[in-house]
Amino acid sequence: MNIIGLIVLILDIIAIIDVVKSSMSGGKKALWIILILILPIIGLVLYYLVGKKG
Question: Each residue of 1-54: pLDDT tens digit?
């Protein structure tokens, strides 16, 4: 595994933990976690730009 892949993995884990700890409803949490898992970089960026606000 290269260093960029490791960094993305760590950031995805941090984002998923942030989603789980958030006050969002269960459905929104599940959708964000699935998005982050399926599209690691795009899902991560979208969560911090859009999802964290709502």
Answer: 699 999 999 999 999 999 999 999 999 999 999 999 999 999 999 999 998 775
User: Number of folded domains in the chain?
Assistant: 1
- How far, in Å, CA of 42 to CA of 32, rounded? 11
Name the CA dihedral angle for 36, 39, 40, 42, rounded to a multiple of 10 degrees: -90
Range(s) of the domain holding residue 17 = 3-51
Cβ burial 2-22 (10 Å sphere, 16+ → b, else e): eeeeeeeeebbeebbeebeee
